[in-house]
Amino acid sequence: MHVAVLLWGFTGVLGKAISLNALVLVWYRMALTAVFMAIILSYRKQWVHITKRDVRYLLLVGCLIGLHWIGFYGAIKYANASIALICLSTASVFTALLDPLVNKGKYDRTEFLLGLLALAGVYLIYRYELTLGLGILLGTIAAILSAVFTVLNKRIAHKYPSRTIVFYEMTTGWGLITLLLPLQLYLFPGSKLIPEIGNSWWQNDWIWLIILSLCCTVWAQSLALSALKKLSSFTVTLTVNLEPVYGILLAFFIYHENKELHTGFYYGMGLICLSVLLQMIRLLKPKNTSASFIEEKGGID
User: Fold this and answer.
1) Could you give the CA distance from residue 53 to residue 8 in angstroms, rounded to a whole number?
2) DSSP structure class, residue 49
3) Which parts of the chain fold into alpha helices (H)?
4) Cα–Cα distance measured from residue 126 to residue 231, given in angstroms and rounded to the nearest whole number
5) pLDDT tens for residues 49-102?
6) How far is it, in rounded angstroms, from Cα 83 to Cα 258?
7) Is the confidence at residue 174, as pLDDT, over 90?
8) Are 30 and 175 in contact (CB under 8 A)?
9) What is the domain partition of the chain in residue ranges?
10) For residue 26, which of 62, 56, 57 has the smallest C-alpha distance?
11) Are the CB atoms for 90 and 272 separated by under 8 Å?
12) Model pTM?
């Protein structure tokens, strides 16, 4: 499980390493992930029939995932990986706020207060890192979209195998981004569409795109699903919430982003981490079983 979360945390570092802009990067990631999933499903003969109604539902979720990734990688490009990851960590709090509205559950005042605490953390980061404002905004939008598609996935996750769901969501998300590419070229005529092949392997976008799709999405999901068979819900959620911690530490180590950030970032990060921790402790019990958590999220980050 820790290896899976470490791979998810590595997506921020790879997003900064790839020279493509956010929309084009996501176009390649979703296409490659869909291809890898199709190969696995065909090799293992795991294709299952999905009803037309559920296909339309997955179409919506796939589009939201595509937009979520555009926001996440946009935050990396306009700010840095640390900002994007800490904003993304508010997704679990937004999920707690949205779930009662979408699934007609009981609304909880405590969850609202925890949401305000997380937003206060985002505000502190914005106030002290004002020059990175657009990146913070995109990271927060990415967190909200992550919460929305996680809540929506909850309705369908139990019906089909996780890999099948991911394949359809990646394919439909890729279709949406394909439609957005002409707009990208119109607004930014100089956008690069072909991944760069540099003079050395670490400057090769294709290598990082394949690692991002195959290792950080397909393999990480398989590891998480395997771990779910033996871990409790509390352990899984605690481990998954370490994703931004791993990602930020990697960004500090590889890109030395700690030298770019001010004190306000750490104050804001503390409030956000506190809100996530309180939400997790309040809702989860170690004895609960765990399979639904990753299935609802789709193993995507």
Assistant:
1) 31
2) -
3) 2-17, 22-43, 52-78, 81-88, 91-102, 109-128, 133-153, 162-187, 205-210, 220-228, 233-240, 243-255, 263-283, 291-297
4) 37
5) 999 999 999 999 999 999 999 999 999 999 999 999 999 888 878 887 787 777
6) 11
7) yes
8) no
9) 2-297
10) 62
11) yes
12) 0.90
